[in-house]
């Protein structure tokens, strides 16, 4: 049964997901003669690039999240629904929710995002949480803070070492930023607060399976990032594959040398990304192909083959950028790409309604940036004059102001700017609140 709605002769557009892609698609249709229903499993839009700051107690959750209903309170053609879509009926043009209700559509934009990939070892998730949602961030923050608390109570030096070893698996932007921030917490935030342990003696280890961190960056910036991490006290171990994880540590297999074990009670997964399970539902409903990561292989205009009324955007789409005169190139799974796909899907939806030809998606690459820690970062920009690369303090400042600029909401920008300024001068992180102390604190 479908949720009640006022009858309308206008086309019904359903957008699944209020991440960057879904948000931009809905905004791009603000003046369109359509009725939009925006569906999400949560009631907030999350600024994921700063999620690690919540996980490391640098920011409170409301600073990087905005209520969906508030965002669209002035856009009269948008209705927001809280619910989880579990099935798509392409023949009947209906999406079905977990609670067995249904919602009809004339046009569907699927922007369900991505989740963690443990490369077939899903049992690792219990010991090495990933970072995609606020719940993930709260869990990681709990584990990090309670590791120090447990080390303070531990009397056996060998067991204490397990609590004081922090391992981040994956050397992409999230892994690099997380590792750098953990080192700052240990060396600048917590010293003086414990009596039996020295937090500065904690080890932060970054494990990456490829030869270098930040693979999307040029070689020289990747090298500078590794050097900046090492200056912060992070042990960077590249060319090293993780082959086993349990509640007390992990097994590492380096490209050169013998496998070894790291004892650690706080492991963070930042190594793999898989498409939302909703991709399989799209494939089952339409017969579209999926790539190895479970992403939907879309047409050049982001439509589903044989179903032009369905578009897939963001991390769920195996899309290619089509630039005249060049071979189509894969689109990276980054927030600027999701935003651009959302706008393109909206423009092509309007083109179909007006009987015009749709346009192939063209990704405009503005570059990559990552922060390593205090006064440290790397930036690789695309400018009309060519590539612009820089690192260190200028890159850190650029990263800071770029993220404040792209945050959703004026209040959030002010709050984040104030919190960062306070943390910069005081070295303190005030979002250090945990409630469930049992699992990490007493697990033997």
What report would you give on this structure?
The protein has 444 residues and is of the alpha/beta class. It folds into 2 domains: 144 residues, FAD/NAD(P)-binding domain; 225 residues, FAD/NAD(P)-binding domain (3-Layer(bba) Sandwich), CATH 3.50.50. It has 12 helices and 27 strands. Strands 5-2-1-9-21-20 form a 6-stranded mixed sheet, with helices on one face. The N and C termini lie far apart (49 Å).
Helices and strands, with pairings:
Blueprint: E1 12-16, H1 20-28, E2 35-40, E3 44-46, H2 51-55, E4 65-67, H3 68-71, E5 78-82, E6 85-89, E7 94-97, E8 102-104, E9 107-110, E10 114-116, H4 134-153, H5 157-164, E11 165-169, H6 173-189, E12 203-207, H7 219-232, E13 234-237, E14 240-246, E15 249-254, E16 260-263, E17 266-269, E18 273-275, H8 278-286, E19 296-297, E20 303-304, E21 307-312, E22 317-318, E23 320-321, E24 329-330, H9 335-353, E25 367-373, E26 376-383, E27 386-391, H10 393-406, H11 410-426, H12 438-442
Parallel strand pairs: 1-2, 1-9, 2-5, 9-21, 11-12, 11-17, 12-13, 19-22
Antiparallel strand pairs: 3-4, 6-7, 7-8, 10-18, 14-15, 15-16, 20-21, 23-24, 25-26, 26-27
Helix pairs in contact: 1-9, 4-5
Task: Give the beta-strand count.
Answer: 27
User: What is the level-2 CATH architecture name of the largest domain?
Assistant: 3-Layer(bba) Sandwich
Q: Termini separation (Å)?
A: 49 Å
What's the CATH C level of the largest domain?
A: Alpha Beta
Number of domains: 2
Mean pLDDT: 93
What is the molecular shape? globular
Sheet having the most strands: 6 strands, mixed
């Amino acid at each position: 049964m479908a949720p009640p709605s006022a009858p309308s002769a206008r086309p019904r557009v359903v957008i699944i997901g209020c991440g960057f892609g879904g948000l931009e698609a809905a905004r791009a249709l603000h003046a369109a003669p359509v009725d939009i229903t925006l569906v999400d499993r949560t009631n907030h839009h999350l600024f994921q690039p700063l999620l690690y700051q919540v996980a490391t107690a640098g920011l409170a959750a409301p600073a990087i999240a905005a209520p969906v209903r508030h965002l669209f309170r002035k856009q009269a053609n948008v209705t927001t629904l809280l619910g989880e879509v579990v099935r798509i009926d392409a023949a009947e043009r209906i999406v079905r929710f977990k609670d067995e209700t249904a919602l009809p559509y004339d046009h569907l934009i699927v922007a369900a995002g991505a989740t963690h990939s443990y490369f077939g070892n899903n049992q690792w998730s219990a010991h090495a949480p990933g970072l995609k949602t606020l719940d993930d961030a709260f869990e990681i923050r709990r584990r990090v803070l309670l590791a120090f608390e447990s080390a303070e109570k531990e009397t056996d030096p060998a067991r204490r070492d397990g609590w004081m070893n922090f391992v981040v698996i994956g050397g992409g932007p999230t892994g690099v930023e997380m590792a750098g921030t953990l080192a700052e917490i240990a060396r600048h935030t917590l010293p003086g607060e414990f009596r039996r342990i020295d937090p500065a003696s904690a080890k932060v280890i970054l494990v990456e399976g490829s030869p270098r961190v930040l693979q999307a960056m040029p070689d020289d910036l990747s090298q500078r990032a590794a050097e900046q991490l090492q200056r912060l006290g992070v042990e960077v171990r590249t060319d090293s594959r993780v082959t086993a994880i349990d509640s007390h540590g992990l097994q590492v297999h380096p490209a050169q040398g013998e496998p070894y074990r790291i004892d650690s009670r706080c492991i963070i997964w930042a190594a793999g990304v898989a498409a939302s399970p909703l991709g399989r539902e799209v494939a089952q409903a339409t017969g579209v192909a999926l790539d190895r990561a479970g992403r939907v292989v879309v047409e050049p205009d982001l439509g589903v083959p044989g179903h032009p009324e369905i578009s897939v955007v963001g991390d769920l789409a195996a899309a290619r950028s089509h630039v005249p005169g060049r071979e189509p190139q894969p689109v990276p799974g980054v927030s600027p790409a999701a935003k651009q796909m959302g706008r393109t899907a909206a423009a092509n939806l309007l083109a179909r309604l007006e009987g015009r030809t749709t346009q192939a998606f063209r990704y405009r690459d503005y570059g990559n940036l990552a922060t390593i820690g205090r006064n440290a970062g790397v930036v690789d920009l695309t400018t009309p004059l060519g590539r612009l690369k820089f690192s260190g303090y200028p890159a850190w400042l650029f990263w800071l102001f770029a993220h404040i600029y792209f945050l959703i909401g004026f209040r959030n920008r002010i709050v984040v700017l104030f919190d960062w300024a306070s943390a910069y001068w005081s070295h303190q992180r005030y979002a250090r609140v945990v409630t469930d102390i049992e699992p990490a604190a007493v697990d033997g």
